[in-house]
Amino acid sequence: MRPLRALLLAGLAGAALLAGWLLYERAALLSFAATPFGSAEEKLVDVPAGSSAHAVVRILARSGVLSDERIAWRYVRWLKRDKRALRAGEYAFAGPLTPDQVLERVYRGEVKTYKFTVPEGLRMDEIAAIVEDAGLGKARDLLATMRDPAVARELGVPFPNLEGYLFPDTYAFTRNPKPRAVVDAMVARFRAALREAEAQRLPGVRLSEKEAVTLASIVEKETGRPEERPHISCVFHNRLRRGMRLQTDPTVMYATMLRRGGRWSQNITRADLLAAHPYNTYTSDGLPPGPIASPGEAALVAALHPSACDDLYFVSRNDGTHVFCPDLACHNAAVRKWQVEFFRRRAAHRPAGGGAE
């Protein structure tokens, strides 16, 4: 009986040791789970597609996001036992974070996104540069997609490129989006804004979609003041009805850019004004062949819902606002006051030697 008793005691002692070890291990894992870890700076972690749970834990630990790879794996395997898959992608972590906060982000696939904001009134080349600066692709690749007539057709754009249809807004994408995904999102947002504008179209406005978007792009470039956009639009509608040329400077700049092979300049020369080109509204009748920039929703609404006015001219006050005139006499007086005399006075107050004010 003594050998059996000794064996029984040894078994009880082993069981007690095992129970003690399990309690200790559980306490260690619970302590690990409750303890935030990680430095404050952002750490980018790439989880490749097809990675096993053990491999993901290893990547997170070696990236400084989890404090201990072995303990983390024991916690995931024996205590947490989550049946969800850990999802691939690029993640950003800035600690301190608990293991559950880290793992939950990967379980849910909350990958890092890169944002960019497109202001109103930009051209395709300017928008492509903004997207590249956000780390979401090369501008040349984006421009190639924006200028592809096949892409325009597939997206229902009635022009040979996407000029004017890349809606000004803030967008977010995960790393390395396809150029097509970027332009698809922007055109879809434009379509939604155009539907909103169409709902406010005045009964007497007969513009087609092509004409409305083209006019909206000119309105957008002519003023940054929201309250002026319907009035600017009214002037252009009045000129179009009377068969007058629009004679708007932004179209001259756009035409000059096209004539110069893409080189942009804010300066307009007399030669530029007189250069025959379909986009130059000083030498061509009616609207130009297409948009000259991407209008925002307010400009789209203004193109389809102009204010009521008798004005045919407007002149900049050089502060972002304009003087509106119904006839040439009023217009010439405004030009003298706000262009000739304004700049003469400014030159007279300029410090000697021509230094900047």
TrEMBL record:
Record flagged with keyword Iron: no
Site (Important for catalytic activity): 222
Enzyme class: lyase
The EC number(s) this enzyme carries: 4.2.2.29
Keywords: Cell membrane, Cell wall biogenesis/degradation, Lyase, Membrane, Transmembrane, Transmembrane helix
Any GO molecular function: lyase activity
One Pfam match: YceG
InterPro entries tied to this protein: MLTG-like
Matches recorded under Gene3D superfamilies: Classic Zinc Finger, Endolytic murein transglycosylase
Catalytic activity line of the entry: a peptidoglycan chain = a peptidoglycan chain with N-acetyl-1,6-anhydromuramyl-[peptide] at the reducing end + a peptidoglycan chain with N-acetylglucosamine at the non-reducing end
Keyword Membrane: yes
Superkingdom of origin organism: Bacteria
Entry function: Functions as a peptidoglycan terminase that cleaves nascent peptidoglycan strands endolytically to terminate their elongation.
Similarity comment: family membership: Belongs to the transglycosylase MltG family.
HAMAP family named among the record's database cross-references: MltG
Protein name per the record: Endolytic murein transglycosylase
Organism, scientific name: Anaeromyxobacter paludicola
Organism lineage string: Bacteria, Pseudomonadati, Myxococcota, Myxococcia, Myxococcales
Recorded name of the encoding gene: yceG
